[in-house]
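The data are set out underneath:

___
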Amino acid sequence: MSNSGNVSQKGTMEGYVKTLTEKRFSNDGKDVLLDQLNEVCKVLVLRAEEHCLSSGRSTIFKEDLHKAYEELMKPHVFVEEITLKLENQKTELQELAEKSITRFLEDV
């Protein structure tokens, strides 16, 4: 895959930005925003690709992109999900340790 090319063209971006604010953007500001949009797109696509591959697929689906977006834009949700999974695993490990045969040998 080539790393060249842009997600958006400056003219299209300028039109969209005008719908969000009445403020003007300097040319340098437009260039920075365009570069940032391209980087965000790259991050989303690469993370969506990871979701796709972990599901054993060769096609990126919208769900992969939704997951990637959620991780990028709402990291607190991702952290909360991981925390819950870790708490569940901790409980499972504690239960496993309590049932361990070597635990019964400690009293002997």
Q: What stands out?
A: The chain has a mean pLDDT of 87.
